[in-house]
Amino acid sequence: MSIPTLSQIAHGLSTGHFSSEEITCDLLADIVAKDKQYNSFITITKTLALVQARAADQRRSQGRAAPLTGVPIAHKDIFCTRGIRTSCASRMLDNFVPPYESTVSQRLLDAGSVCLGKTNLDEFAMGSSNETSYYGVVNNPWDLDAVPGGSSGGSTVAVAAGLVPGATGTDTGGSIRQPASFCGVTGIKPTYGRVSRFGIIAYASSLDQAGPIARTAEDVALMLNVMAGFDQQDSTSVDRAVDDYCAQLEQPLKGLKIGLPKEYFGPGLDDGVAQCILSAVQDYERLGAQILDISLSKLPLSIAAYYVIASAEASSNLSRYDGVRYGYRCDQPTGLLDMYCRSRAEGFGTEVKRRIMVGTYALSEGYFDAYYRKAQCIRRLIKNEFEHALAQVDVIMGPVTPTPAFNQGSKTVNPVGMYLEDIYTLSANLAGIPAMSVPAGFVSGRPVGLQIMGNYFAEAQLLQIAHQYQKVTDWHLQIPPHSSQECA
Amino acid sequence: MTLVDTDIKKIAHLARLQISQNELIDYVNSLGSILALVDHMQQVNTDDVEPLANPLDQHQRLRVDQVTTVNQHDEFMALAPVSDAGLYLVPKVIE
Q1: Domains in chain B and their CATH numbers?
Q2: What residues 8-47 of chain B have any CB closer than 8 A to a CB of chain A?
Q3: Cβ neighbours around B57 below 10 Å, total
């Protein structure tokens, strides 16, 4: 058994091997039959998908097909989709049907892709395990007792299980890379500002960035080609020409300088994960790369800086949910203040409220300088350190996470323990550099991802480096044991 | 930095979140441990460091001041939990 990649599906469509309607029907049937065991979808958009698939087939028959025309994908349920409920996995937005479309989903729509549905996530993208969703925990197809990672866990599970060949995600502190690592799929967080944030429900605006998730680097490149680009409607979007992310995939890696930061291999890193990463690094040496030891000494500070900045920005962004204009409102409020306080208390889950509280405190009178401003200064130091390192090496490699996927429920009682899981991913968001996760092995049957971080706007190079590795390895093609299991 | 009940109540009020007595105890503990974690920052001297708000040090781009979207009043009102005659309804504010 094998699961077709997005590129293979695109090829099958272009050669007329099957139609978009056929592959869309097949995948929809798979989702209905199998997703009960994963819970990776919040909403399945069957009717819309079939309309889009037929339109894609017609477009192709008229000779107007683009690379993604007719290719089925899914969107993390954080991207606003016009006329389709967009919940952000929160009771607060359980009834929210956006009157507009996010730029990312619009671009993918314009390219002719077919939307199969909206995938599950941690509530408001706040979490590292997909256990905070209002719609329930998502299960990892490699081991149904394990978490899939978060927050884009629904998207990575849907791709890993073969329910969809590609999906969108967002990454504020690792939310594409960490679940990609836990589920054995490929995902990239682009440079901050490379992909428009317009229409993405905001968590931490100075850190949020959208990116694609698929089985291979080539698939990810095809999706990013459509997703990236300047957008007038996002004031932090960068007005800079977009590379063709497929153009340099086949270039060899001879002479590539890879930096290994010693702090990424220190105490806390699982031995099995370390072995997978070091083995991948040896593969790169065989591909002609040169390995250099480097230091990123500010790594331990990234957790503190991140949780202050992200929580502060979240408390500000989520102040819009007041029970007045859209979203949840409590029953029979006794007054305006009661309506605000109860609507928010009942509409938000525990982790979201916790981060709002932390952020509110960090921004409150008398504490702003000690927390928010201090965290922004640390953020500058982290960025400076990356710039210094990336002047010596082309890319930096290390693990995505300290351990493979952990068991469900094992970290929910200890929020700080859960935050420490993000140690290796947070600094790329703080610095704004692109970073990706590439499948690089297994520990006790659970996948391990190799993290590749590069310089600003070096997405094409990261994808080339990942693609060259995937040509000589097959970790990304392994099939989860539960992917073919029929639901009872 | 240790937080006590009155701190939590003040933060909850600022955040417009109603909290129960049980939640109050949880917040004293969980916010306390989170603040202990973030207090690691205070060991670093940042006297000469400029705060970083945007990772690319970009400044806010302003757009041309012209109308770009049509009026979507009816679509937006349709999302409101309670509305009447094109207005949002909220509990009585002034007697």
Answers
A1: 5-42 (1.10.20)
A2: 8, 10-12, 14-19, 27, 30-31, 33-35, 37-42, 44, 46
A3: 11
- Quote ipTM for the complex: 0.96
For chain A, the domain total comes to 1
**Partner residues linked to A115 by β-bridges:** A73
pLDDT tens digits, A207-242: 999 999 999 999 999 999 999 999 999 999 999 999
pLDDT of residue A487: 36
Residue B49: HSE in the Cβ half-sphere, 13 Å Cα cutoff: 18
A424-446 tens-digit pLDDT: 999 999 999 999 999 999 999 99
Residue A151 among the catalytic residues: yes
Indicate yes or no: CB of B37 within 8 angstroms of CB of A358: no
Chain B residues 51-80 within an 8 A CB cutoff of chain A: 51-56, 58, 60-63, 72, 75-76, 78-80
Has residue A382 been placed in a domain? no
Residues forming beta bridges with residue A342, ordered by sequence position:
none
CA A412 to each of CA A120, A137, A176, A415, A416: distance values in angstroms, whole numbers, following the listed order: 18, 12, 20, 6, 10
Reply yes or no on whether the pLDDT at A485 is more than 60.
no
- Name the active-site residue from A151, A343, A427, A437: A151
* Nearest chain A residue to B76, by CA: A99
